[in-house]
Write a structure and sequence with these properties.
This protein is about 20% helix and about 25% strand. With about 120 residues, the protein is of the alpha+beta class. The radius of gyration is 23 Å and the shape is elongated. The protein starts with a strand and ends in a 32-residue tail after the last helix.
Length: about 120
């Protein structure tokens, strides 16, 4: 069984349309469209499972770069989801090596400093 990534989909593409796109190449097992949790709208990519590896390779070769809904599809074999450690995930943006536009707050200089009591705000 081969899991295939289909990206750059139109946001109006449905699971049945995606299934119909892959069915001419062989038996399609499962189709999953990624949906936004808050809005319920499609996120523009999905996954298709095909039972036969040769059929999956033919589908990838034929559909990668094909235009659908005014967009060129990106179709390839899906990679396994990378596992992130909890420390890596929770400190995103807080490291001094982050060269992106957003910098997180670093507590390196305040590690052992005693906290001063605050005045009440009333």
């Amino acid at each position: 069984m081969k899991n295939i990534f289909a990206g750059n989909l139109s946001f109006q593409t449905s699971e049945s349309e995606l299934r119909g796109l892959f069915e001419p190449f062989g038996q399609v097992g499962r189709v999953h469209m990624a949906m936004d949790r808050e809005t319920g709208r499609a996120r523009g990519f999905g996954f298709v499972e095909m039972n036969n590896d040769d059929e999956a390779k033919k589908a990838i070769a034929a559909l990668d770069g094909k235009e659908l809904g005014g967009r060129k599809l990106k179709v390839n074999e899906a990679r396994a989801k990378e596992k992130t450690g909890s420390s890596q995930h929770n400190n995103r943006g807080a490291s001094s090596g982050n060269k992106g536009g957003r910098r997180g707050f670093s507590t390196e200089d305040y590690g052992e400093a005693a906290r001063q009591p605050r005045e009440p705000r009333w």
